[in-house]
Amino acid sequence: MKLGVLVISLVLFATSVQAQRSAASRQAINQVLATQTAAWNRGDVTGFMQGYWHSDSLVFIGKRGLTYGWQPTLDNYRRNYPDASAMGQLAFSNLHITPLGAEVAQVVGRWHLTRPTAGDLEGHFLLVFRRIEGRWVIIADHSS
Known about the structure:
By secondary structure, the protein is an alpha+beta fold. The protein has helices spanning 2-41, 45-48, 70-80, 84-87; strands spanning 59-62, 65-68, 89-99, 104-114, 121-132, 135-143. The protein has a six-stranded mixed sheet with strand order 2-1-6-5-4-3, covered by helices on one side. The chain is globular and about 70 Å long. Residues 1-19 form the signal peptide.
């Protein structure tokens, strides 16, 4: 009987700890996305890229195919959005953050660029986040 109570107590404790970690992970990931949005909306592509893993192993999948690496991804953004007018104002919506483990999570959502002179753009995305050196960063981005 005592062993059963102990096992149940340990399971409840572990579940509580996992729920707290998941909530903290979701909050940290939301903060990365909010920081990216703010950087984009002030025309700061480099600041926006701080949410990505600064590595040659970063992968971005877009309508033009695969891009590997932080610098090539930054170069693509700069080429496609050469100034604040082309960048417009970014908004994310319908975010679904799903922790896949203590150090990995996926985010599915929608992006929308409001661009009065160039026309609005929108689409969906799947991001894979990983906690690296205590910081949540995007390691893979599939945006359409």
